[in-house]
Automatic annotation (TrEMBL):
It comes from Beggiatoa alba B18LD. Keywords: ATP-binding, Nucleotide-binding, Transport. Belongs to the ABC transporter superfamily. PANTHER family: ALIPHATIC SULFONATES IMPORT ATP-BINDING PROTEIN SSUB 2, TAURINE IMPORT ATP-BINDING PROTEIN-RELATED. This is ABC-type nitrate/sulfonate/bicarbonate transport system, ATPase component. The keyword Phosphoprotein does not apply. The keyword Acetylation does not apply. One of its GO terms (molecular function) is ATP binding. InterPro entries: AAA+_ATPase, ABC_transporter-like_ATP-bd, ABC_transporter-like_CS, ABC_transporter_ATP-bind, P-loop_NTPase. SMART domains: AAA (SM00382).
């Protein structure tokens, strides 16, 4: 179990803290989705966990032990961001080898993950030769090839069309079910959160706190258009209309785009 307690994160020019007294836990092998309105601090939270942001006051506990937050989290971590962030001058295979530091068996491992995302045949192509959806699959392979214990995902399927996003979620789930890292998955899209996660955490606006925690017990696969998932979605909107209104507006905005 990983527990993070953020006492305070206050950006220099801000009128109030972005995060305050925010606590969340992720069990070993658990997939947790984090939803909340734009600007509430989701990326800030991932930056703190990843070690990019060293200015926050926070505490980490891993397996009951308090960790020294001046050091990086002693867990192998993987990341996936809103854009695929592939190196354009490297082939698909070399993009994966880069994060493996060309260690022993790294080529074999990289090819294994490219096969897992259905891109073995594209190993020697460059990112620009691939579609946007394929580039996201390379980014997924790169996130998993390091065999992370904790995977931080910041809206990784934003701005791809709905069928491609559905396929990417399917690939993500098959990778996750094989190796079961802890996942913290940020999204604006409540249906996406419900389709992937074991548990969904809802954040309030600044200072952001976890205001609702929803376990999801539906079996996988859970397509975003399935009756069970839509029922759960509607039920949440009916039970927590105020809380979810900010998120729903953003979903509508995304639909329009
Ligand atoms: N480097 C920074 N300096 C000052 N303020 C910042 C900085 N980064 C983020 N902020 C502010 O902190 C708040 C939270 O930003 P953050 O990007 O974490 O939100 P978010 O929930 O991830 O938003 P979105 O869903 O739109 O990506 C926002 O008000 C933002 O303007």
């Amino acid at each position: 179990m990983l527990t993070v307690t953020i006492e305070k994160k206050w950006y220099a020019q801000a009128k109030m803290p972005t995060l305050e007294n925010l606590q969340l836990s992720i069990a070993d092998g658990e997939f947790v989705a984090l939803v909340g309105p734009s600007g509430c601090g989701k990326s800030t939270l991932l930056n703190i966990l990843s070690g990019l942001d060293k200015q926050a006051q926070f505490q980490l506990q891993w397996q009951g032990q308090t960790l020294d937050t001046r050091q990086r989290l002693p867990l192998k971590m993987g990341f996936m961001f809103q854009d695929s962030r592939l190196m354009p001058w490297l082939t698909v295979l070399d993009n994966l080898l880069l994060v493996l530091n060309h260690s022993a068996h790294s080529r074999e491992l990289a090819l294994h993950y490219l096969q897992a995302v259905g891109l073995e045949a594209q190993a020697h192509q460059f990112p620009a030769q691939l579609s946007g959806g394929m580039q996201r699959r390379v980014a997924l392979a790169r996130a998993f090839v390091v065999q992370p214990r904790l995977l931080l995902m910041d809206e990784p399927f934003i701005s791809v069309d709905a069928p491609t996003a559905e396929r990417l979620r399917h690939v993500l789930l098959s990778l996750w079910l094989t190796s079961r890292p802890m996942v913290l998955f940020v999204t604006h899209d409540l249906r996406e959160a419900l389709s992937l996660a074991d548990r969904v955490l809802f954040l309030s606006m600044n200072p952001a706190r976890v205001v609702l925690e929803q376990p999801i017990v539906l079996p996988h696969p859970r397509p975003t258009g399935s009756t069970e998932l839509l029922q759960l979605y509607q039920q949440l909107l009916t039970t927590h209309p105020d809380l979810l209104s900010g998120i729903r507006q953003e979903e509508r905005h995304t639909d329009v785009i």
